[in-house]
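Can't paste images in this forum, so I'm doing it all in text. The chain is below; anyone willing to post the predicted structure tokens underneath?
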Amino acid sequence: MEMSEDINAEEYPTEIHDYLATFEKSLTSVDEMLKTMMSVSRSELLQKLEPLEQAKLDLVSAYTLNSMFWVYLATQGINPKEHPVKQELERIRTYMNKVKEIADKKKASKLDKGAASRFVRNALWEANPENDQTPAKAKKRKMN
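Text version of the structure:
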């Protein structure tokens, strides 16, 4: 269903038509995403996720719902900045930052064993059986 079918162009200023069309596309996108999320039971979804991913899903869901409520308040002429939803969004953002810090620490603590092995192998000198020179002999020859 297109916006032109729902609303007569004479009912709103033509300058905002593009904004309304973009808003309608965004709503359709949100609707499709919600249908996808709702097609799988929450418990089934959580079983497939690691605890950190579960926390991320919960936080994103809470933030999304509160953001949608923020928009609803604005459409009703209520200033959402003066509503408790603002504090709730800030609280959720704080937890999102904490989860991000944990995820960053988890990533940083992983050691790339292959890279470390190559680094150590290349940093250590190995004798070449063809030249049979040790680092000490090589230094002596250079000094003379």
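The two ends are 89 Å apart (CA to CA). Helices lie at 3-6, 17-38, 42-47, 51-75, 84-108, 113-123, 135-143.
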